[in-house]
Amino acid sequence: MESTEDPENRLLLQPWTSVCFDESTKLMIKVWFGDAGYALLLSDLSSMWYEKVDTEVIQQRSKELNKRLTAHVSSFLSRLRSLICPLLEGEKSSSTIFSCQLSSSTLTLRVKSELSGLPFYWDFRCSAAPVKMVFHHLVQPLMAMSLVLQSQVQELASLLLRKDAEIEDYRESGATLSRGKEGGCCLHSAPLWDTSFLPSFLPSFLPHGWHRACSLWPLAILTWISHTAAPDY
Amino acid sequence: MESTEDPENRLLLQPWTSVCFDESTKLMIKVWFGDAGYALLLSDLSSMWYEKVDTEVIQQRSKELNKRLTAHVSSFLSRLRSLICPLLEGEKSSSTIFSCQLSSSTLTLRVKSELSGLPFYWDFRCSAAPVKMVFHHLVQPLMAMSLVLQSQVQELASLLLRKDAEIEDYRESGATLSRGKEGGCCLHSAPLWDTSFLPSFLPSFLPHGWHRACSLWPLAILTWISHTAAPDY
After folding, report:
1. What is the pTM of this model?
2. Model confidence over B8-22: pLDDT tens digits?
3. Where is the XLF-like coiled-coil region domain positioned along the sequence (chains A, B) (predicted)?
4. Which fold has domain A2-129?
């Protein structure tokens, strides 16, 4: 059943992670390995690259790159999976070297390692992903997450208002904060609406250009997607 | 100075809004009008379409579509702006009809209205936007906003913990909530960590597929962009 399913759909179920190939090449990546192929998606936040391969491509490429190695497709896939997974988890291996060559239209991720005691080479040969994939794998999940985070902010703000009302009631009843207790004098907190927290808040760690980008994205439009068809997965 | 600046950069400074052309055609849209041209961007969350025109294109198209009308380019631009702005604000005009024809590679937004008492026709003829524009106009701003919202959630959660500590101190000092006051008995609130609010929360209005999309987007990766070059605007 797995082999008949579109690898792109399987890839949709994988999470994104970020990988640093060298000082100047940091990419977002997601990978899916099946019994008869793999799919790979990479992005540098300006472009996106994709490769989907089946058994035939794996056989051809393994002959081209590893003339001395004869192994079943499943062995190559298993080896590739065992090399890629530590990369995604940020682990470095002294016996495996990854290098990345990219342009706007192609990205080649070169792997140099070993298999059964012999040198093992692999090229992930990705080409520019279509716009539809950028929407499916980045825009739609980001909109969904922004919606969730927006709901969390609203829920937390509402909870804070209830806490403020409770504190106000204690104060009106003449209650005071303990001073003998360590840190007690620091417990007094300003009501939510006295702070300049809401409605806007831009964290200081956000790079300059992102402030502008963010202010141009009205939160209201996010609610639109709640009335939009869900992505097909 | 305005005319020498790239319309795409000017478009980056415009906010997105959503427009409903008919029951089955709801699109996100952003527009920029200058003295010598305009730029238009539309998306249905699967594709993106773009048109950038200068004075020459406006002159040609106005001759093609409005044979009886002779007017300066600035008059056409002014009229188009006065027709598009109410559309973006959700206002309907009985004297203006918009219709939208779209495929994955082209989108034509037809306008039928009047200018100086004569019929006035216009076609916004958009073609598929390149992947880079999807990143600049959607992915990067959405990532920036998700980062801001994530910071807001953390800041609000931290504020709630301080309120909980303050409330706990009042309670330990023997303070009780007023019961005589209207609604006073409802003021008691559970501490933040007693609720099942955090760490995960999925609003019920989110369509089914989005839950999956959202859970596949680790929040941690967002912090990555704080170390990434800011977009060039």
Report:
1. 0.80
2. 888 988 888 989 888
3. 130-178
4. Dna Repair Protein Xrcc4; Chain: A, domain 1 (2.170.210)
